[in-house]
Amino acid sequence: MGIGKLKELILLLRFRIILQRIALLFCLLIICNRTMGQQDFAVRNNLLYDIALTPNIGFDARISPHWTLGLNAGFRPWPADDKKEKKWRHLLLAPEVRHWNDSIFHHSYWGMNLIYSHYNVGGVKFPLGLYKSVRDQRKQGDLIAIGAFYGRSWRLNHLFRMEAELGMGIGYIWAKKYECPHCGTYLGHDDKVFLVPKLALNIVYQKAEKKPQEPVIINPSAPPGNIPAVPTP
Fold this sequence. Notes:
Layout (H helix, E strand, L loop, with lengths): L2 H34 L4 E6 H5 L4 E7 L4 E10 L10 E14 L7 E15 L15 E18 L4 E19 L7 E4 L2 E14 L28
Antiparallel strand pairs: 1-2, 1-9, 2-3, 3-4, 4-5, 5-6, 6-7, 7-8, 7-9
């Protein structure tokens, strides 16, 4: 077995382990949702991240009547073949805190998040002119950032909600850069401060809180429905 195939196998095994942990986390969240209350937990997936072929999951937990604490995670292991010209492999973890203006999981909210990412990117043309330096170079390193965002939530049915988020952060990267995406000459370090935009369209799983049934008030002076009223003489 060649070194390239061995690296690919190790990467796929790591990816499988991460998927298993994400699935276990999802199951634990569902169990917690059933035991701690329907409105205490929510699990979400960023559809825009899915379009970029990056499996991801996030969750929120109530910590007060207006605050939730959450975590977003994404992992893209492909292309696993190092001979590919284009590369966009990365792992992302982003804890966050949200303040809900009305009540948690309803209507508008704002929040703050921390971002950590380990990446290997090269030969990729990002939209809106972002990160132009990786179009002709490859960069491998780490990112850490802090940001703020605003969001809005809409109830779709008793199981799902939709969220839209927009925000901005400031971060610092330290990475090694190479002349071309595949196997170019090492060009040194690329350490700098830069802006990190945040854009999300989340589909959220969360059961709606059951509304208590209103008691039926019976008028004791009214006759029973199946017994005709006796006229007063």
